[in-house]
Specification:
The protein has about 500 residues and is α/β, with parallel strands linked by helices. The chain is about 40% helix and about 25% strand. Strand 14, helix 12 and strand 15 form a beta-alpha-beta unit.
Length: about 500
């Protein structure tokens, strides 16, 4: 029952205080992970996920606890409320304390071993998370970006401890869930599979895009991502001469800057070795590097212009790949080595798998797609259809539902109170007047003697009464302090 409706029913002579209540189910999530402008795949994921959840319409606000690499200082956007110095245990503890004091409902941890600990020369893993988790008083939802089969005991213990502290654990592939059950001995009850998100993209004609990018006249192959030795780019370069022999217009684009951690350790040594290989094979006109960290818009344009996308990665155990997910979301024909994630998402004709570190195998896959238009179209259509379930819109809604469930917001709706006053003519017919107001069924009307913060002598001298309304379904319509300050005399329950 609204205040205006009550007012029109009861007239104007005695002061009325109406308490209006509303259900506020908004929750706040603190995402812990790297965040742009830090150049890192987890940073991009954290940004895209938090944006998708905030835009899901599920009432989820965003807070970010950004993890800084050693010695770095970034100009973060406003939603970054806290920063963690990756190698400083005190920083982790302090941010846990600040999150506890905030209005955050739950914490979403974007877990990658390299972000949350360090590997010693002996190979042992030193975990930074336990101190943070021990002091954190909020529920935790963990997203696992790396799930290693047959893990080292240190890594297994680290992931099991995170699982034990988490209310829900998300992996991005069915294979990842299977490994967690079989190799880590985790109960599947808390495990969820939510795919890596991808932008919503409209399939576009490659020739038109190539013209706009001054790449017309070329058959485009591409690989993107932060450059490191694990990408296997050299194997594609070695495969190119046999491809160019049959398709002389081929141009291979290597998109992305060198990974900052790689650049810190060895500079551009890997990129320079690739350039040396290109010169040795006389492929200068057939390979180009786009040596920069691409925005999402730039990346999508390159992918839409690509004829065949390639992920020649050498790590068999890679359980997720944002680059491959994006290529599928764009509906690309794909050739990939069969690392765990690729073997799952490219199954059933959605792409072609080549052998690890095997240039002739890559050559065969690339030539098959370039020479058989029907096969290429089939791969593109199946990949695009598969990618529809991976759009950030769909993924954001699934995470938002998970966050809402963990926070229990529907069961703990916060009460919003407004006290408003006007005079009405007091008479014995007030109950009848209120009962006639539409929508008052099940509403309790309580007649109170005084308004809050009046002394008893002043209250006795006042010939006024306060009225406040409370929906029966709300357990705490006003604060205890306000309730104690009002001497309730009569309760009338209106039922139509």
């Amino acid at each position: 029952m609204s205040f205006a409706t009550l007012l029109s029913a009861v007239g104007e002579s005695v002061r009325v205080y109406v308490e209006e209540t509303a259900m506020d189910t908004t929750i706040s999530i603190a995402y812990v992970g790297s965040y742009p402008p830090r150049a890192c795949g987890i940073a991009t994921f954290t940004r895209d996920l938090s944006n998708a959840v905030a835009q899901s319409g599920r009432g989820v606000d965003t807070r970010i606890a950004a993890i800084n690499d050693e010695g770095a200082l970034y100009g973060y956007p406003a939603q970054v409320r806290w920063t963690i110095d990756q190698g400083d245990p005190r920083s982790w503890i302090e941010v846990a304390r600040q999150i506890n004091q905030s209005r955050v409902s739950s914490v979403s941890i974007q877990h990658e071993f390299g972000l949350y600990g360090t590997f010693e020369p002996s190979g042992c893993f030193v975990d930074s998370l336990p101190d943070f988790l021990d002091r954190l008083e909020k529920p935790v939802i963990s997203t696992l970006h790396t799930v290693l089969p047959s893990p080292h005991p240190d890594l297994r213990a680290s992931l099991r401890a995170l699982y034990d502290r988490s209310t829900a654990v998300v992996t991005m592939s069915t294979m990842g869930r299977r490994i967690l059950e079989d190799d880590y001995g985790l109960d599947p009850a808390k495990l969820m599979v939510i795919p890596h998100g991808v932008p919503t993209v409209i399939r576009a004609h490659t020739d038109r895009l190539k013209h706009g990018m001054q790449l017309e006249g070329h058959t485009l192959l591409s690989t993107f991502g932060l450059l490191s030795r694990g990408k296997g780019i050299e194997h594609v370069i070695l495969a190119l001469p046999a491809v160019i022999e049959r398709h002389p217009d081929v141009l291979y684009l290597v998109l992305g800057e060198t990974h900052p951690e790689v650049r810190r350790r060895e500079g551009e040594k890997y990129r320079n070795s690739l350039l040396d290989l290109i010169r040795k094979l006389h492929l200068e006109k057939h390979v180009r590097f786009v040596n920069q960290y691409l925005s999402q818009q730039q990346l999508i344009r390159y992918l839409q212009a690509t004829d065949v996308y390639i992920t020649p990665y050498v790590d068999r155990n890679q359980i997720t790949s944002g680059t491959l997910a994006y290529a599928m979301g764009c509906g690309k024909a794909i050739v990939s080595t069969p690392y765990l994630y690729a073997a799952e998402v490219l199954a059933e004709g959605r792409g072609i798998l080549a052998e690890f570190q095997d240039p002739p195998s890559l050559t065969r896959g690339i030539n098959s797609l370039l020479e058989h238009a029907a096969l290429r179209e089939q791969c593109e259509s199946l990949a695009f259809a598969y990618g529809r379930a991976m759009t950030w819109e769909a993924v954001g809604m699934r995470y938002a539902d998970c966050f809402q469930s963990v926070a229990g917001a529907s069961a703990r709706a916060r009460n919003v109170t407004r006290l408003r006053a006007v005079r009405f003519a007091w008479s014995g017919s007030v109950r009848d007047k209120l009962a006639a107001v539409p929508g008052t069924s099940g509403v309790k009307v309580r007649i109170a003697g005084v308004r809050p913060r009046l002394s008893r002598p002043a209250a006795r001298s006042m010939k006024e009464h306060a009225v406040y309304c409370e929906p029966v379904s709300v357990s705490r319509p006003i604060s205890e302090r306000a309730r104690r300050s009002m001497s309730a005399q009569t309760s009338i329950s209106l039922q139509q």
